[in-house]
Amino acid sequence: MSNPWVLIFVAGLLETTWAVGLKYTHGFTRLFPSIFTLIALAGSMYLLARAAQTLPIGTAYAVWVGIGAVGAAILGIALFDEPATAPRLLFLTMLIGSILGLKYTSH
């Protein structure tokens, strides 16, 4: 897996995983959710670092954060009954557009 865009996408998915995992750790007082969350965090950082060897760091970091933020927000709606208001969904859609824009305008 050497394509930096694949690496950054998987890193973003792992960021979503560890961000949502934080909710299940209960402040890192639950062992297995805490271990799983820390493994996802380490994997996410490693893949971000690998992708940043090729991609500009500003682009790599922004895409990584964006994927994690969108994923965490969507899972927050699905798993934790967070609000899915029209303005919130609009801004998430705009964030997805920004992520795609960064990908397609980066060299």
UniProtKB/TrEMBL annotation:
Keywords: Cell membrane, Membrane, Transmembrane, Transmembrane helix, Transport
Segments traversing the membrane: 29-49, 61-80, 86-105
Keyword Cytoplasm attached: no
Any Gene Ontology biological process: xenobiotic detoxification by transmembrane export across the plasma membrane
SUPFAM superfamilies, sorted: Multidrug resistance efflux transporter EmrE
Membrane topology: Multi-pass membrane protein
GO CC terms in record: plasma membrane
UniProt-recorded Gene Ontology molecular function terms: transmembrane transporter activity
InterPro entries membership: EmrE-like, Small_drug/metabolite_transptr, Small_multidrug_res
Protein name: Guanidinium exporter
Matches recorded under Pfam families: Multi_Drug_Res
Family: Belongs to the drug/metabolite transporter (DMT) superfamily. Small multidrug resistance (SMR) (TC 2.A.7.1) family. Gdx/SugE subfamily.
UniProt organism field: Terriglobus roseus
Compartments it resides in: Cell membrane
